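Final report, results section. Input specification for complex C-07:
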Amino acid sequence: MKKFSWFLVLVLSMSIFLAACGGDEGDSGGEAESEDSGSTSEEGSEDTASQEGWVENITVLTGGEAGVYFPLGVAMADIIDSNLENVSATGVSSGASVSNAEQLNNGEAQLALVQNDIAFYGAEGSNMFEETLDNYSGVFTIYPETIQLVTLADSGIESVSDLEGKRVAIGDVGSGTEANATQVIEAHGLTLEDFDAQHLDFADASTNLQDGNVDAAFVTAGTPTGAIQELSASADVKIVSFEEDAMNSLMEEYTYYTQQDIPADAYENFDSTASTVAVQAMLIASNDIPEDQMYEITKVIFENLDDMANAHVRGEELTLDTAEDGMSIDLHPGVQRYYEEQ
Ligand code: GLU
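Structure output:
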């Protein structure tokens, strides 16, 4: 028993001694690590030093997977994720513009692609928004989103008024497409009650058009839109032109519409041009993102424009020169500072 106690004392003191040594080693290891990152990676140390209050997880809201927001939003999230230390970013699919603006305003996400008309209505608290959404600001506009009224070539639908009594996809619930469809229809003297309006995202609208379950679909998106591309690979599609008077009244009433023609080579099996209107796609940021973090986010995106162009051809249209064209709301202060310095 006595022997054992001495042995125990010996073992205990040895382990205390070892633990002390280990602890020292561990401490100096930790210090060396932070010293290392301080001396060898200037960018890393700057980031760590200035990242106080930064939002670590960034959610980028896009739209449906068969649209243009989705590939571009995912590309932006990847750029942020791989270029900003200690920040992780993810692009997620969503109902698009209207719900994106609301979710961003509620703090459920940090960045979102939206239409410039919808961003404006949100900031003003007008149109479909009952309250002013004051917790987001502008980052950049990117490319025109064309209001495309798609149907099969043999549907017999030649004009918006031919939609009367038909089954029409008007976009996902909470999409900008739904808002544009309603405005376009009203500008042509109809209302949503004049036909069987269905809330479908672009992918479902395309499948249902192909299967004969809907007669036409509204799609507000950059061309070529994935969902229409897919449809036009196996069917002859037509995009219906809007009437000139209706386009003029739309542009007069809602300032963010511009006139736009869809060229004949926009899609496969599509051999007519179409006269329609467009809005602009833009990125908005939550005001919860600190100024210096938003400056860095803007900077890394503009330093990796190739990744945007590779994600979708419309990504090529993001440039510093055009970033403020059609900007419908105030810029985020971090974005403002970045532009001023360029
Ligand atoms: N502009 C569309 C909308 O807000 C979404 C476009 C897209 O997903 O590319 O409804």
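Residues 57-143+280-341 form a domain with the D-Maltodextrin-Binding Protein; domain 2 fold (CATH 3.40.190.10). The mean pLDDT is 88. This concludes the modelling results for the funded period.
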